[in-house]
Amino acid sequence: MFKNIAVTLDGSENSNDALIQAVDIAKTNNANLTLVSVVNETSYYYMGNAVTVGATPLPTDMKNAQRNAAQKILDKSQAYCMGQGVTASMKVEEGIPKRVIVDAYSREKGYDLLVIGKSGTDAISRVLMGSTTAYVVRNATTTVMVVG
């Protein structure tokens, strides 16, 4: 039924549960599995002392630290996949997570299933901008499985 599956991972308990489900589905369907972690570009900026001051970029080393953290999440997840007998590719993306997931993984790259946790690690962004999961469910053009 499903041949190309992407699972989004942010290190949260819900994304770990999503990984377990995605691996089971990949095994059952003999499907390709891609592990995706999105480095949130909005976290590269912090606000000045007032909203009108604008945003100031964070140092490049902080961006690299976020990329390294995302890669560690994927490495750990790939090790789990291998232990389950599933080969998975990995992809670290940058951008606004909900947009990257919808645009790249439901529209451009031809995945027929997106697996995502019901909520992730970024509670502040969820309050300010809305849930990534809710956005993906509303806007994806492919099947979305929410795990949590």
TrEMBL record:
Domain UspA, first and last residues per copy: 1-147
CDD domains the UniProt entry points to: USP-like
InterPro entries: Rossmann-like_a/b/a_fold, Universal_stress_UspA, UspA
One Pfam assignment: Usp
SUPFAM superfamilies: Adenine nucleotide alpha hydrolases-like
Similarity comment text for this entry: Belongs to the universal stress protein A family.
Record-given protein name: Universal stress protein UspA and related nucleotide-binding proteins
Lineage: Bacteria, Bacillati, Bacillota, Bacilli, Lactobacillales
